[in-house]
Amino acid sequence: MDFINRIKAWLQRPRGDHQRQPHKSIIGSRLNFLLWAVGILLLLLAARLFNLQVLNSGTYKAEVKRSDTSVQTNNVQRGMIYDSRGKVMVGNEAHQAITYTKGPNVSSDDIYKIANRLGRYVSVPDNRLTKRNEMDYYLADKSNLKEVEKHVHVSKDSTDTNATYNAALNYLAKHPSIYRLTASQKNKAKIYAAMSGAYSLSTTYIKESGVTSRELAQVGEHLNEMPGVKIGKSWSRNYPQGKDIQSLTGTVTTTKTGLPSDSVNSLLSQGYSRNDSVGRSYLEKEYQATLAGSKSQTEVTTSGGNVTKEVTKYAGKKGSNLVLSINSDLQKQVQSIIEKNYSSAGTSYSTGCYAVVMNPHTGAILAMAGIDRNPDTGKITADQIGAINHPIVMGSVVKGATIMGGLMSGVISPTNNTLTDQPIRLAGTSVKASWFNKSGGASMAISAPVALEVSSNSYMMQLAMKEAGFKYSPGEPLTMSTKAFTKLRYYFNMFGLGQKTGIDLPGEVSGFTGPSTRSHVGSALDLSYGNYDAYTVIQLAQYMSTIANGGYRMKPYVVQQIRGTNKNGELGKVEYTASPQVQQVIPASKEDFDVVHQGLYLVTHGSSPYVTAKKLGDAKPSISGKTGTAETFYKKTPTSTISFAGYSPSNNPQVVVALAIPDVTNENGGANINMARQIFEAYWKTVKSPKNYE
């Protein structure tokens, strides 16, 4: 009441000229002024509330939520890769690690202080340190920055908010002696760079592996002095069956290398951070989403820029595991077999060797081996993936498809398929002949099976001319239509030669197709016996599998299952199982296939003096197949490619082996046949007992 009485007294007190005005008039004017002022203020307050609660309520609510609560994500253990029997081929090795989670509103000065303190306890020799990292660390010291700024000049009209800092960097770049760091400072600069590069509430590794017990103890003792620093775990890939398998399974990036440059934008859009570890190549890349799993999610509450509460909302899910169709023991043996036999082929100019072991009924790849060789240096490296991306002119090994094309086109039949092996003499071209009949002294009538047995080039060329509607006459010009290319490739493609097989690995190529113009029509004859187009070894395996199983072109695959992980760490629930996929049913009769089956059996068991793979005749279980030799060149040096594709047992095929060795100088050394025999033996010893197939 005393306060109100004072107000009344103030209102009633006369002021200057107002002493001459009536008392009530003075009070009324003052009350009106106050009422108007209060009214205007209330209107302004109402307008402000309307703006906050109606017009921009969503924006401010989102801002409050963003400021107060955020979600922090962390990586989980990557899925592993197993062989067909559950042996780990690619596993994970756990490491003690030092991590840093960047809080919201953390300044460069804060990071500088934390990095300097952490640098006292942890050494990070493996991290890269650039000149820019060194300069940033030097300038993070405010006294250094002020000193450098004295020497730089920035235009007052500059709109670049970082103009002064950039000028300071340019100055240091021109005067490197100014920021020369000690070894201790360089160590701290590496830590500072790693911390500065982290996103808000994202976790980065300061030291992923090799953390010593002393470092762990010292960091643990001072964690409360270094906000965001924690002791955690990291994982790296290990290879219990040997690192050679990396050229098939691929590799993963590290936090130092970050996301691959060729897919960084795509991965960022999927929620990955720039320093996440992801599949870099092959299976690791092809099945990245499966192997990566789901990141853990922690709800982080902040106040005034500090983390006040952390609640785990989702613990994350370890990546799913791949179970391959590959038998790791067979894989190692096949790799060893080709490496041991390779040099006997004369490899001065050779670019490598590749082999595939395949189940002809399902398309499952049981082994995929390979080596790459640099002819200039002689260096040899494992290269299993070369079986799908290295096109090779294979030679006579493809003649089974040529015979099948002749049967399906009707130019020969199972009961009428005898032609005369003779040199093919055409006007304007050099003589083309079989390897055993170059002069014509061994000309003879042969059937289709015998043509395979003795590897007759002449027989195949005559089929090509018949399919193109060209009637051969010695000495006449080759006026054959270019449709000869189309016809031959049409049938080759049916069996998988010259097109991608669709195997579940990235980077497969379709091969190489030679020119098919009128001026190249003579090359169609070379194509018929495998000395023109180039194919991959996986195509060779698919082609022979299609013949072995009686006409079903099966899609090859290496991932047999995708499975989760049990609590005990072992393989868990099956999430996916590969089903055999028939890509094409060959429109040919059993009688047609019998002709080729007979010929492939004669290649290894025939009695002709020209039989090409007699060394395989005593193998148990029996082997049917086809050898190949192509005339090739390494640069300008004449070389040969030797190859083989076949199946076993001959009367009930269970396995197909295909291999090729390009650019050798000893085509008669039998390296291809020796490799094939040893691979078949390894299969029967390692994968399946030959007892029921003798």
UniProtKB/TrEMBL annotation:
The keyword DNA repair does not apply. GO terms for molecular function: penicillin binding; peptidoglycan L,D-transpeptidase activity. Residues 354-680 form the Penicillin-binding protein transpeptidase domain. Its main location: membrane. It holds the Pfam family Transpeptidase. It is found in: Cell membrane. Belongs to the transpeptidase family. GO terms for biological process: cell wall organization; peptidoglycan biosynthetic process; regulation of cell shape. Residues 75-310 form the Penicillin-binding protein dimerisation domain. The chain crosses the membrane at residues 31-50. This is Penicillin-binding protein 2. GO terms for cellular component: plasma membrane. Keywords: Cell membrane, Cell shape, Cell wall biogenesis/degradation, Membrane, Peptidoglycan synthesis, Transmembrane, Transmembrane helix. It is a single-pass membrane protein. It comes from Candidatus Limosilactobacillus merdipullorum.
